């Protein structure tokens, strides 16, 4: 995912310009906080990573992308439009 | 570049001038030609002769070279009007383009000669001519002069010849055409039979159109004797007519053209002049009275505008002329090649305000008749195109008429065809698109989208109307189209109908109205197909009642009218449903307080039920509570339970997930999103993967009850959107279409807030039933049974390994001996086998416990686990290949053996069975362990219970044959004989385990390095190892090499063995393209590591483009900090929940 989708211009540029980026390694054995955060956003249960969530500055969720089972079927443009939509929701909430 | 050359050119010029002294000159000579007449123009020519290899330049030379400069110093009153320079040779090279002359060339200077000019005049001037070769330029300067004589004007003498056509020619009779010669005063022409020197006029007929010259009558001439010539001349003076008598052909009719040329000498006493000229006459021919059908070859002419035109635009009239066979007509430029033939003449008599802009003639054939005589001829069919400007105020139709005259000729003669033509130009409406076009629009199946238009068409074509009521978001409709409509038989039947498509789920007033009117029952599902008569009454209809595979048959019968059909609705149901019509629930439920469906209709009641309630009916202020929507999917009446879609369903045009909206939060604060249970199953039917919700499930939304909320009752309401489906179709419901109240699913939940209420009632979404019933890690839901089957198979194969097979007879013998002692072999074998199963299952259970539910995620991401597995598999592999033998520690087997012996001593046969069963499991470990381990490792990545289940399946696979053989010892004989092949099996397993080991090594590296893909033991290394071991297995099975424990030579290769060998080698070859970047199917890709970041040995030579590195971006690892930054910079936060995997 990181390797196939994130470097695409349409995604990378949005990351660079329009978002504050947070990486949460939920399987970090030394830091339980990311896993707790995941739990907070998914309401517990089992949830596979990667999971992408866009929030406003208060942490309220604006959009979420659960990649399909076959991750490689997710295209860069799909991901880019997910970011686009999230931005619009953020702008609408302002 | 050009600028650079300028100074260089100047230098060359200067140099050239110096060279000019050496004698190279351009000679300039005036040429005096033609007569200089007062009041006219006369051209003075200067001839330039350049030395060989040199060139001069044109006056408009774009290059550097300078053109000759000519200055007239004396012109004697003549005025220079213009200059005529011959065409230069254009010479282009890197430094630019030069327009050059070489050799001899002539420049014309056109002078206006004043009216009063007379006598001898002098023209003089000077020239300065630059001429150059590759090396340099010279300059010649010289003066020139010429004397000219002005000749005074004399009256132009000309003899005229005019044909006089009188009366009509009669077909089959004679006709006389007279040519009138008018000789200038003082001159005379000569008689045909002149005996003197004078030459009579020479007349040649070029066009006779079948007329035959019979004779010619010359008038009498005056004889005059010239003494000095001693001759008598027969002279004409003034005007005289020569009569030419023609024989008119019998079949002639219409208008005939006769034409010819003359060359006439006329003289006075001083000398003679000759006039040349042409003449032509048109003669009307009356058809012969004999009734013999006149055979005038006639061209067929038709005119038409092509397509429509816009007002203010252009329109092209195509005039098509079809010439009679063997006849030709002529191009309009025929005269330019000195042809005689006349081109068709077209005149427009009415153009309705259109103005002719241009005309285009097709190319004609150039036919040579003589030296210097060509004709441009058309044969067969030709189309002349006339382009008109259409007035901007043009109306719908513009008539155009015109007439033509076409000369058609063959070798025998020419005929004139006269006629008229007319055409009408249709003007397209410029505003709004043509409504007729728009109404006739069709969808991709050729179904009309405009119902009313289709009905009109049906009436017009006299065919019944077939209406396809479908939905834009309807998978079964698409399936019908795909599977049934595409059948040849159906397609043929379709031709007997006019077909309209009406969609019930698009926002189209007309469609809604139609569906409301024609749906067989309120809330009926689509697809629904109805055949209607010309009054739009349903003759018969068919809904979706059969599974898709029986559909085609049913649908064909429906189209043919051969099967009993659902009756058409008796009366039109009301188009707008009143509350009374909606149902009792709605009537007594404003706002649906019962928390049930808003208005339950028949269709909905069929599909599912749901209710809404708070998890805790009574809570304290400041507590948390959840709204729980409980859904129960119902039976479709044919044993199939409807399903709804999870939001994880890949949104496609046909799959609409079940979603819930919150309309009114009633003062409570919703937190988070709606929680869904895991889907019960994932089905891909070609329309995208469907995640089906369980048969019973709850959707949950958590609320906070504000602490300042006054005690009392609060209601929360919302809507449910989506569709529920069975294998025939889907019923779509959507709260958003306000004009379809019968499809609105609303929910209401009420909670009492009271100080003595519960602390909270937050709950989670649940689901049961449907699909395979596997919860949690649903991804493997489909594959889990396959996996367990393989585990079972694996267990059976293990029996064939050299550690097990040889001891089987002993085991079975044990059962037999026990039965001889009166113990039931059934019980003995059961205990024995249960022990085997229990041992392995225990091992699986331990693994399950160790790995755990959350650990299942980690096992594949943890470097230590992967590393351990890698080493384990490598150890197993080496053992299998024969490097050493793995054994369970001796004390363990010893203990069991001791117990076994004790039990035997004490005569406890069943106890012995227990201990020997356990011992068997342990002793056979050296062979079973590695195989069981592989299944265990594969299972560990999945569900909590999967390792246990895998071991259960594996050991059952092992124990079952033993149990069966215990009951029927004679089956032992059917077992394959021990032999070298057992070791071969081990070796092959060893190779396979090497492949597994390398895979785990790769995963370990990836986990340790926290990278998306391993760099060292990368995809290509794994592939390389796989290819090698697969090839090695194949070659080994074919007997190409031996391994340590192979005792006997492989003399013959068994059939089964060779098949396996082929399979291994084929698999190796199949993997080869992967080394060069090829991707495999999802199964293989799921196991193989991703390609390394830097491409590894992948052939990506061209990929030099700089890559965006997401790692270079400022990734914050603390969410709280990220939110702080976001607040500062006013940007949303992108959270990537990821893992080191």
Written overview of the protein:
The complex is a heterodimer of chains A (94) and B (1141). Chain A has one domain (9-93). Chain A has three helices and three strands; from the N terminus they run H-E-H-E-E-H. Chain A is globular and about 35 Å long. In chain A, helix 1 packs parallel to helix 3 (76-93). Chain A is 40% helix and 17% strand. With 94 residues, chain A is of the alpha+beta class. In chain B, the strands form twelve sheets. In chain B, strands 37, 38, 39, 40, 41, 44, 45, 46, 47 and 49 form a ten-stranded mixed β-sheet that branches. Chain B has 24 helices and 51 strands. Chain B has six domains: 2-150, Immunoglobulin-like (Sandwich), CATH 2.60.40.1250; 160-286, Thiol:disulfide interchange protein DsbD, N-terminal domain (Immunoglobulin-like), CATH 2.60.40; 300-428, Immunoglobulin-like (Sandwich); 447-560, 3-Layer(aba) Sandwich (Glutaredoxin); 579-768, Immunoglobulin-like (Sandwich), CATH 2.60.40.10; 783-1056, no CATH class. In chain B, 28% of the residues lie in helices and 31% in strands. Chain B is of the alpha+beta class and 1141 residues long.
């Amino acid at each position: 995912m990181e390797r196939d989708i994130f470097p695409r211009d349409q995604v990378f540029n949005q990351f660079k310009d329009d978002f504050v980026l947070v990486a949460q390694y939920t399987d970090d054995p030394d830091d339980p906080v990311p896993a707790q955060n995941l739990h907070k956003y998914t309401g517990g249960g089992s949830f596979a990573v990667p999971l992408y969530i866009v929030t406003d500055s208060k942490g309220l969720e604006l959009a979420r992308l659960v990649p399909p089972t076959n991750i490689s079927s997710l295209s860069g443009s799909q991901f880019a439009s997910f970011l686009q939509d999230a931005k619009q929701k953020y702008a609408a909430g302002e | 570049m050009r600028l650079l050359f300028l100074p260089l050119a100047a230098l060359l010029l200067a140099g050239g001038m110096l060279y000019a002294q050496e004698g190279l000159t351009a000679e300039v000579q005036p040429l005096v030609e033609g007569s200089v007449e007062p009041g006219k123009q006369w051209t003075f020519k200067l001839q330039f002769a350049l030395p060989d290899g040199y060139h001069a330049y044109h006056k408009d030379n774009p290059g550097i070279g300078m053109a000759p400069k000519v200055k007239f110093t004396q012109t004697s009153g003549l005025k220079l009007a213009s200059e005529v320079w011959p065409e230069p040779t254009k010479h282009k090279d890197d430094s630019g383009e030069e327009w050059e002359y070489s050799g001899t060339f002539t420049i014309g200077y056109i002078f206006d000669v004043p009216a009063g000019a007379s006598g001898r005049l002098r023209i003089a001037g000077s020239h300065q001519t630059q001429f150059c070769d590759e090396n340099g330029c010279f300059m010649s300067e010289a003066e020139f002069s010429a004397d000219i004589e002005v000749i005074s004007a004399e009256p132009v003498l000309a003899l005229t010849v005019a044909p006089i056509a009188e009366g009509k020619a009669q077909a089959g009779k004679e006709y006389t055409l007279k040519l009138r010669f008018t000789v200038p005063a003082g001159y005379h022409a000569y008689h045909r039979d002149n005996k003197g020197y004078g030459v009579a006029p020479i007349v040649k007929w070029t066009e006779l159109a079948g007329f035959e010259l019979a004779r010619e009558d010359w008038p009498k001439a005056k004889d005059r004797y010239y003494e000095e010539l001693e001759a008598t001349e027969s002279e004409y003076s003034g005007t005289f007519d020569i009569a030419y008598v023609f024989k008119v052909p019998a079949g002639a009719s219409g208008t005939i053209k006769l034409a010819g040329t003359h060359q006439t000498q006329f003289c006075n006493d001083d000398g003679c002049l000759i006039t040349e000229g042409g003449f032509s006459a048109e003669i009307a021919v009356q058809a012969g009275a004999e009734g013999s059908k006149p055979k005038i070859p006639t061209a067929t002419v038709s005119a038409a505008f092509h397509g429509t035109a816009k007002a203010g635009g252009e329109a092209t009239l195509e005039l098509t002329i079809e010439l009679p066979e063997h006849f030709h007509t002529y191009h309009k430029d025929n005269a330019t090649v000195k042809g005689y033939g006349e081109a068709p003449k077209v005149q427009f008599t009415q153009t309705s305000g259109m103005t002719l802009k241009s005309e285009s003639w097709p190319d004609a054939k150039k036919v040579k008749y003589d030296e210097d005589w060509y004709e441009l001829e058309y044969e067969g069919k030709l189309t002349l195109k006339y382009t008109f400007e259409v007035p901007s105020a043009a109306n719908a139709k513009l008539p155009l008429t015109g007439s033509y005259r076409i000369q058609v000729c063959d070798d025998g003669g020419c005929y004139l065809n006269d006629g008229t033509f007319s055409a009408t130009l249709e003007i397209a409406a410029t505003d709004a698109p043509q409504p007729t076009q728009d109404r006739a629009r069709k969808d991709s199946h050729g179904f009309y989208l405009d119902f009313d238009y289709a009905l009109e068409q049906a009436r017009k074509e006299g065919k019944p109307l077939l209406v396809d009521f479908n939905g834009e978001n309807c998978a079964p409709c698409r399936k019908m189209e795909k599977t049934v409509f595409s059948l040849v038989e159906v397609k043929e039947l379709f031709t007997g109908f006019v077909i309209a498509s009406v969609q019930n789920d698009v926002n189209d007033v007309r469609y809604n109205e139609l569906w409301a009117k024609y749906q067989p029952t309120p809330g009926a599902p689509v697809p629904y197909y109805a055949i209607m008569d010309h009054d739009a009454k349903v003759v018969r209809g068919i809904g979706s009642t059969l599974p898709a595979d029986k559909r085609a048959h049913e649908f064909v019968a429906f189209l043919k009218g051969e099967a009993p059909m659902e009756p058409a609705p008796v009366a039109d149901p009301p188009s707008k449903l009143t509350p009374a019509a909606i149902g009792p629930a709605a009537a007594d439920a404003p706002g649906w307080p019962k928390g049930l469906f808003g208005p339950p209709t028949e269709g909905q009641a069929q599909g599912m039920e749901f209710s809404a309630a708070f998890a805790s009916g009574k809570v304290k202020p400041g507590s948390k509570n959840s709204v729980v929507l409980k859904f129960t999917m119902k039976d479709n009446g044919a044993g199939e339970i409807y399903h709804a879609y999870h939001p994880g369903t890949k949104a496609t045009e046909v799959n609409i997930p079940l979603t819930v909206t919150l309309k009114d939060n009633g003062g409570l604060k919703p937190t988070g999103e709606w929680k869904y249970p895991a889907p019960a199953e994932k089905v891909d039917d070609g329309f995208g993967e469907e995640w089906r919700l369980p048969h019973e499930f709850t959707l949950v939304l958590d609320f906070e009850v504000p602490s300042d909320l006054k005690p009392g009752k609060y209601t929360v309401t919302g809507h449910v959107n989506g569709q529920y489906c069975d294998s025939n179709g889907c019923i779509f419901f959507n709260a958003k279409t306000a004009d379809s109240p019968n499809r609105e699913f609303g929910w209401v939940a009420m909670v009492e807030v009271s100080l003595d209420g519960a602390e909270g009632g937050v709950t989670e979404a649940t689901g049961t039933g449907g699909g395979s019933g596997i919860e949690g890690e649903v991804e493997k839901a489909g594959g889990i049974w396959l996996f367990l089957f393989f585990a079972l198979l694996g267990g059976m194969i293990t029996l064939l390994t050299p550690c097990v097979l040889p001891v089987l007879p002993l085991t079975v013998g044990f059962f037999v001996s026990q039965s001889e002692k009166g113990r039931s072999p059934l019980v003995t074998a059961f205990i024995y086998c249960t022990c085997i199963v229990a041992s392995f299952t225990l091992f699986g259970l331990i693994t399950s416990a160790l790995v755990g539910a959350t650990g299942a995620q980690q096992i594949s991401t943890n470097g230590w686990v992967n590393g351990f597995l890698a080493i384990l598999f490598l150890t197993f592999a080496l053992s299998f290949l024969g490097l050493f033998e793995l054994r369970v520690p001796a004390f363990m087997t010893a203990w069991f053996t001791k117990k076994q012996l004790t039990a035997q001593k004490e005569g406890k046969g069943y106890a012995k069975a227990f201990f020997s069963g356990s011992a068997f499991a342990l002793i056979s470990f050296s062979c079973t362990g590695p195989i069981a381990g592989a299944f265990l490792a594969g299972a560990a990545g999945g569900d909590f219970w999967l390792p246990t289940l895998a071991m259960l399946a594996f050991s059952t696979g092992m124990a079952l044959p033993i149990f069966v053989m215990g009951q029927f010892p004679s089956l032992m004989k059917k077992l394959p004989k021990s032999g070298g092949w057992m070791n071969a099996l081990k070796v092959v397993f060893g190779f396979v385990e090497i492949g597994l080991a390398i895979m785990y090594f790769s995963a370990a590296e990836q986990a340790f390095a926290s990278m998306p893909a391993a760099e060292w033991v990368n995809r290509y290394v794994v592939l390389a190892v796989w290819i090698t071991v697969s090839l090695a297995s194949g070659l080994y099975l074919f007997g190409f090499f031996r391994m340590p424990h192979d005792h006997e030579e492989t003399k013959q290769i068994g059939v089964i063995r060779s098949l396996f060998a082929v399979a291994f080698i084929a698999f190796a070859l199949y993997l080869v393209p992967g080394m060069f970047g090829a991707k495999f199917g999802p199964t293989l890709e799921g196991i193989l590591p991703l390609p390394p970041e830097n491409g590894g040995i992948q052939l990506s030579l061209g990929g030099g483009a700089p890559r965006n590195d997401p790692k270079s971006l400022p990734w914050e690892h603390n969410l709280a900090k990220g939110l702080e930054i976001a607040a500062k910079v006013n940007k949303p936060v992108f959270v990537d929940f990821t893992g080191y995997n």
